[in-house]
Amino acid sequence: MQVYKLRINRNLCTGCNVCVVSCPINFNQLKTKGELTDKNAVILVRNGVAFPVYEDERKINCDGCGVCLKECPQNAIKLEIIEVE
Ligand code: SF4
Ligand code: SF4
After folding, report:
1. Tell me, what DSSP letter sits at residue 54?
2. What is the pLDDT of residue 58?
3. H or E stretch including 16?
4. What's the mean pLDDT in 11-28?
């Protein structure tokens, strides 16, 4: 099975939150759950830096749509396709 893994360049990220609010999955979670947490979000900002949210390599929620990559003003996000069993 292929999953999409986010790579965020911490040296470029300014913590602006644009990726968090532009991610369609985050948006749907916010609409249905009323908040974004490290249990339901795909990407969040903490301590001024964005980070991908997942429990382990089998539970990556990102669907690889690429919206956050296009929206990031710092070009700090890359997507990697990884194989998991
Ligand atoms: S949009 Fe880019 S610069 Fe802004 S928080 Fe996300 S990764 Fe960092
Ligand atoms: S690639 Fe799409 S689903 Fe994945 S974090 Fe970015 S905006 Fe969200």
Report:
1. B
2. 63
3. none
4. 97
